[in-house]
Amino acid sequence: MGARAHLPLLAAAALATAGTLAVPAAAAPDQAAACSGYVGLTFDDGPGSGTTALLNSLKQYGLRATMFNTGQNAAANPALVRAQVSAGMWVGNHSYTHPHLTQQSQAAIDSEISRTQQAIAAGGGGTPRLFRPPYGETNATVKAVEAKYGLTEVLWQVDSQDWNNAGTDAIVAAVGRLTNGQVILMHDWPANTRAAIPRIAQTLAAKGLCSGMISPQTGRAVAPG
Question: Which residues are catalytic?
Fold first, then answer.
């Protein structure tokens, strides 16, 4: 989901929705001891052609993230939804077709959210508890439908601008601005984002920060558990 200007990329975009129970339990004690805080790494618009490489890199560097999947991509790639969970990621709802929800009727918003809940669950991603509205656009009607499905709305404090062709250096620098509890917007599909993963891990470690889960209670990053 994400930024205002990647509408032409919606076909490539897909899936997201942060989930619940189907994830390995918390960080090992030695890792937890090294964490002075937690941040939420989020990747919108999957799953798609870049998802496997992204998951492999996240696993290699010991990072966990919330994957805000679009329903249409989840439905088309159920094996990748399962792969996200198997890799220790959380899965969240990012609408079915990535529309501007604030321009939709309540019934259309309901369809976008409910179909994505179903597609992610059918793919093995559990029932999402987190929702990211496309483009970060929300209003009272969107929030009412989120509440109907027990979803917590998750926006972000830092935008990596990867949707806007940000380079790897800029993406890493954006991660460097995160503080405890904050969430960063990234996407599943940009090659520069995948290339940034090793340095993202280094940047967080240098600040004593670890990648955490997003709390359905607060919408902030917390220790996995």
Answer: 44, 187
Provide the β-strand partners of residue 187. 44
CB atoms within 10 A of CB 4: 12
What global pTM score does this model have?
Answer: 0.86
Residue 113 CB-half CA count within 13 A: 29
How far is it, in rounded angstroms, from Cα 3 to Cα 18? 18
Of 2-11, 113-122, 156-165, the poorest mean pLDDT is in 2-11
Token pair belonging to 36: 């002075």
Q: What is the DSSP-derived secondary structure letter of residue 104?
A: S
Give the dihedral of Cα atoms 181, 185, 188, 193; nearest 10 deg. -90
Q: Which residue has the tokens 């997003």?
A: 214
Record the tokens describing residue 188, joined without a space.
């599943």
